[in-house]
Amino acid sequence: MNKFLQRWTVFAGLIVVWQLAGMAADDPFFPPPSEIVTAAWEWWVLEPQNVTEHILPSIGRLLSGWAIASVIGVALGLLLGRSDRAMEYAGPLLVFLRSIPPPALVPVFLLLFRGGTSMQLATIVFGVIWPVLLNTVDGARSVDVTKVDTSAVFRIPRHQWILGVVLPAASPKIFAGLRVSLSLSLVLMVISELVGTDNGIGSQLMTAQREFDYTRMWAGIVLLGVLGYGLNTALLAVERRALAWQPRSRDEQHA
Amino acid sequence: MSNMLEVADLGHTYGDYEAIGGLTFNVRAGELVCVVGPSGCGKSTLLRTISGLIAPSRGDVSLHGSHLAVVFQDYQRSLFPWLTVQGNVEFPLRSLPRAERRSRAAEALAWVGLSAAAKKRPWQLSGGMQQRVAIARALAYRPALLLMDEPFASVDAQTRFELEDLLLRVRREHDTTVLVVTHDIDESVYLGDRILVLSGSPAKLVADLEVPLPAERDQVTTRTDEAFVALRSKVARLLNVGGKPTLDVDKWAAAERESLSETVSS
After folding, report:
1. Which tens digit of pLDDT belongs to each residue from B33-69?
2. Distance (Å, whole) CA B154 – CA B151
3. What CA–CA distance (Å, rounded) separates B124 from B127?
4. Which residues in chain A touch residue B81, judged by CB atoms under 8 angstroms apart?
5. Minimal Cα–Cα distance from B3 to chain A, Å?
6. Quick one: which of A143, A139, A144, A141 has its CA closest to A177?
7. Domain ranges of chain A
8. Positive or negative, the Cα torsion across B59, B65, B67, B72?
9. Of all residues in chain B, what percent carry a pLDDT higher than 90?
10. Mutual angle of helices A167-194 and A56-81, in 10-degree steps
11. Which residues make beta-bridge pairs with B70?
């Protein structure tokens, strides 16, 4: 309970300050939190079709884009990471592609996919695949020599080598990549929804701004914050379970 | 007795560096042979060529059996931290049906006295226990030859004695053929039926010695046995004569001391 208080005191304090400052300023561009919460309530709880039309599709795009990128990134990363030659060929290309800011490709994907969900998915996948891919390559490369030798001596089959040795050995790095990708997915989900679509949280933000409904715009921003926080917490919980075998996580539990 | 392993004119060079210079020896079925040599003499290269991890530059290694197992010095890195002790022992047995895998693992863990630790993670065990897990894993694989690379060099002296006796008991009970690579002269005499003494790099066979000790050995009485002491001295002398790098360093140090005393006195 003490720890809970410690973690949330500053957060709650800032909201109180924001509330007081917002009330004092009485500026339509910066409404106080109480008005934002009221707007959120009216917008999403009293009109649940907004949840099904905008919030759920957004979350769906975010999660499927992230999942596609993760599967491709991990699979490709495991193969590239265990082959020096493949990395020599593909390395410069990967570094080049990674250097392109993903939002810059939104116009390209708009042309290619003519907007809509496939364009948004392409934006998210292309943007978030790099942290997963490069972390997986790094993790797959770092399997220590004794484990490589042990596996070779016991002549284990190839699928057991990849899934039973390389994948778990790389998993701490993979999870680090997955976390970066997940927060990037949220960013790219919003960006991809700002253009070429009329549903989703991003497009709702634009609509609210255009209609001078700043309270709703702020409600959307707060919702994105809550969403990002929730997703990250959920992934951390999964990670803690999946990596429970690590000696370090045990020490933390004892502390 | 038939040969389990035949090594003929085995040589290996890395670029210009010759690590092994033509080794010929046999290991008979059920025998425990120790390979002893000075540090950096190419023992690891020998082990890697026998285990098939690297292809030798020349010569032949033939194993009369389908597969071998290796127990590495670094048990911490050799065991998989994401698997339980039982999972580690089952690791080389994935091609077998689940029930057989289970029973073989349980059996091997019982041999090394670790049945109670089956559900633990390797890193929750002491170093000596971890190496016992590695030994159990190798035994569960039922290898034609058990190769051990400095298996007890990373544990404390007390544990080392325990593990040496464990190895002797297990191999007697299960008639395992074992080749132990070590730099420790006492260990080679205590464990071995036969000792292969290697020279410094490139590794060459200096001597092939039968160990004139009874099969039953004991840490206290065997180590004070006259035959033990005599053989230990013999191996030590062979290593100093054959082990060129150590000799050179000693000579160099002696020459250095002489030249120093000369300059002081003059």
Report:
1. 999 988 777 888 888 899 988 888 888 898 888 889 9
2. 8
3. 9
4. 245-247
5. 21
6. A139
7. 37-44+51-243
8. negative
9. 28
10. 140
11. B147
CB nearest A154 (choices: B74, B81, B91): B91
| Whether B91 contacts chain A with CB within 8 A | yes
Q: Which two tokens stand for residue A150?
A: 């042990």
Domain ranges of chain B: 1-67+182-226+235-266
Task: Tell me whether residues A156 and B92 touch, CB distance under 8 A.
Answer: yes
DSSP 3-state of A26? coil
Paired strand residues for B203 = B20
Domain topology for B1-67+182-226+235-266: Rossmann fold (3.40.50)
Helix (H) or strand (E) holding A24: helix A2-25
With 0-12 CB in 10 A as exposed, 13-18 as middle and 19+ as buried, what is A72?
A: middle
**Helix H or strand E encompassing A155:** none
Chain-centroid distance of CA B257 in Å reads 37
Tell me what pLDDT residue B1 has: 63
Is residue B73's pLDDT more than 80?
yes
Residues A137 and A198: their CA atoms lie apart, in Å, by 38
pTM of the model: 0.83
What does the pLDDT look like over B118-141, one tens digit per residue? 899 999 998 889 999 999 999 999
Q: Which of A39, A30, A33, A41 is nearest to A16 (CA)?
A: A33
Say whether pLDDT at A136 is over 80.
yes
Residues from chain B that touch A157, judged by Cβ atoms under 8 A, are 94-95
Chain mean pLDDT for chain B: 84
B65 touches chain A (CB under 8 A): no
Contacts of B47 in chain A (CB under 8 A): none
The class of domain A37-44+51-243 in CATH terms is: mainly alpha
Please, are residues B198 and B204 in contact by the beta-carbon 8 Å criterion?
Answer: yes
Span A152-182, pLDDT tens digits: 999 999 999 999 999 999 999 999 999 999 9
Would the CB atoms of B92 and A245 count as touching at under 8 Å? no
Structural contact between residues B141 and B69, judged by C-beta atoms closer than 8 angstroms: yes
